[in-house]
Structures are given as C-alpha cells and as structure tokens.
Design a protein that fits this description.
By secondary structure, the protein is α/β, with parallel strands linked by helices. It is built from eleven helices and 19 strands. α8 crosses α9. The longest helix is centred in the last third of the chain and has 16 residues. The protein is globular.
C-alpha cells in the first residue's frame, strides 16, 4: 500500500522500497544505485559523465539551495541516471544561479526523488553493495518493479555514448604545450586545469587511433575519467600500449585503470566504490596525506601490480586501495582520484604541474 501523498519511489533489487516525492523529469529509470558523501557540488556531480546510468544518493541532506549556473557544468549534456536526496530546495538563493536543479533535470530527462531517508538508503548500499534500482511511480506494484529490474541490464557502452563525436580544441591563452586528451567521458574542469598551465588541449574521441594522435604532434597525452568497467574499452588500452614510452602520459580515474590494464595489471569492481570529496590518500613518495575527491566503482588489484613495470605511488588510507601508479622509464603516471576537483579539495593540483614538467623535459630533450 502506498503511504499517503507520496508520488514516487525507489525499488531495490533486495526488495526494499523507499517512498518520496518527484522532481526533475517524471520518467521511470533503471539505474545502478550509489552514494556520494560530498557536502557541495551537486551541479558538478549531475554533469559528470562518470555517473552515466547511475542513480546518485546524496548523503548531505539539503540539495538545490544554491541553484544551477552556466559556468560550473562538467559536460554540456548530463547523463546521470537519477538523483536521490533527503530535502530538495526549489527556491535557490545565489547571485550566480540561472535556473533550478529541477528544471535542469527535467530538461535532460533525468528523474529526481526527494523525501527519502538517505541515511538508511546509504547504509543499505554500504551493506549490500551497489545494485540496480528502479525509480518509478509510487503506485507501481513491487512484483512488477522487481521483474523490470531482473529483465533490465545496465548498458556497457557508456564510454562510447559520452565521448565526443569529433575532435575539438580548447586553446590556452599563452600556449606553452599541446596536449591530446582521449575523451572517455572527460570533465571540463580537467581541460580548464590544463589551459591554466599554458596547455592547449585537443580533445579526441575515445576510439582515436595512435597514428591519429601522433599526427597532432602533442607534447603529452591525457587519458580521461569516464563511466563503467575499464575492461569494456580495450581500444583505449591498445592505444596506451602503442604510445607508452614515446610521449608523456597522464591518466585520471578511468584513465588510471586503463593505464594499469595496459601494463598487465587487473581491476575489480568494488562493493560500493568511492564517491565524495573527503577521501584521505597517502602520497608514498612524499609521505604527505592528501584529501581527495573521488568517483569510481572499480579499483586496481594490488596483487597484480608486482608482475608489471608499474610502481604504486598513492594509497587510500580508508581501505588501502591503490590510488596512483607510475612507470618512470615510460614517463607515464596516473591517479584514481580527481586532482581537478571543483568544488572540492585542492591538495592534488600539483599533479598537473608534474605532467607539465614531464612535457617540458621532453621538449628540451627533443
């Protein structure tokens, strides 16, 4: 029986139901349910392509209060599966706000649900792991919803759907270096971070060949973040193998996993992943602890690294997972977290400077 006045609900694979109220698009959606512990940054979260097909539970209770603005999107067309919050505010107070969160979600056909006990739901995800869930009307019979979940698979072609269709360029005002970025679902703040350091960035589709990349004569190659299982994009793995040792390469998040796979390491799906702007990571080379922003479901298997030419450079202090690797000989390195985080911790911006230094060294040795 539907609790009085509720309009929407979430059905989990476990059979749990969570009732609430709809905002955004009034559509049904099967998603992979995950939670995010960030206190700010919901605009960046809903527009991060890494959340494609995922329903994000925000553990911070109040969402929508500062609205949406034109400047802070991480992609032009958000592909998040859905948004689940405790309290939604449809009357933002912010001089930068140009629209409400609900209006943006509706525009992009993304469903939202508020009024949910997000503490209980986050504990369920923590205990049972990430799982499929159905965002639907409150009156849908549970048996019907469970049947839909059983017969609906989460797509595995997310990278090809969120990558750009054709190359495009973001020039730096005072160009010092040129970077080719392989777009697996790249956040725009990565491009901004490179531009600020004098790097003009040529963004290319995920399946661009090594020969096409080399034709741009870049000083370095960047492998971006993105959604899904890294094993689903073997084309990028082959590209990394073809380019490693020839040119400096830097990878973030999915890019980190793809670089590790290119060297023969293995990856695995985590129980509920890391998502939020408060994860402590130790830099094993300096001993310093960085507070990082993260968003991933997969991790690099520690036992598989020893048989590769990679060295572990960073470790997560919460669960010991690998957060960074490098191959000094090949001038290649990567991190699992997001040094370009916006908003969020700024502890890891030095990694872009490290990439710039590798490219400048390559220029001087040319």
């Amino acid at each position: 029986m539907v609790p009085q006045s509720y309009t929407r609900k979430i059905i989990l694979e476990t059979g749990e139901e969570y009732f609430g109220f709809g905002f955004g698009a009034d559509v049904d959606r099967v998603v992979e349910l995950v939670f995010n512990t960030s206190m700010v940054g919901y605009q960046e979260i809903i527009s991060d392509p890494s959340y494609t097909n995922q329903g994000v539970v925000m553990t911070y209770p109040l969402i929508g209060n500062y609205g949406m603005n034109r400047d802070d999107y991480e992609t032009v067309f958000p592909t998040i599966g859905g948004l689940i919050v405790r309290e939604y505010n449809d009357f933002p107070s912010n001089f930068r706000s140009s629209s409400t969160l609900s209006d943006v979600l509706e525009c992009h056909q993304i469903p939202g649900i508020c009024g949910i006990d997000t503490r209980k739901l986050a504990r369920s995800i923590r205990n049972h792991g990430s799982q499929k869930a159905l965002l639907t009307n409150a009156d849908m019979p549970l048996e019907t919803g469970l049947a839909i979940l059983k017969n609906t698979a989460i797509p595995t072609d997310a990278v090809s759907r969120v990558s750009c269709d054709a190359p495009w360029e973001s020039p730096a005002q005072n160009e010092r270096l040129r970077v080719v970025a392989i777009d697996c679902g790249m956040k725009l703040n990565i491009v901004r971070s490179l531009n600020k350091r004098g790097c003009s960035v040529i963004i290319v589709p995920w399946n661009t060949s090594p020969q096409e990349i080399e034709a741009y004569a870049p000083d370095g190659v960047f492998i971006s973040n993105g959604p899904g299982d890294p094993a689903d994009v073997p084309v990028v793995i082959k590209t990394i193998r073809a380019l490693r040792g020839e040119i400096p390469i830097f990878g973030i998040c999915l890019g980190h996993q793809l670089i590790s796979l290119a060297y023969g390491a293995r990856t695995y799906k985590m129980k509920f992943g890391h998502r939020g702007g408060n994860h402590p990571v130790r830099n094993l080379e300096t001993g310093k602890v960085e507070i990082t922003s993260q968003n991933h479901s997969y991790a690099v298997d520690s036992n598989s690294i020893s048989s590769t030419r990679l060295t572990v450079t960073h470790r997560n202090l919460l669960d010991g997972t690998i957060e960074g690797v490098k191959c000094e000989q090949d001038r290649i390195f990567s991190v699992q977290y997001h040094p370009e985080s916006a908003p969020g911790p700024q502890d890891s911006g030095y990694l872009f400077d490290k990439f710039v230094a590798l490219m400048e060294e390559g220029q001087s040795n040319a």
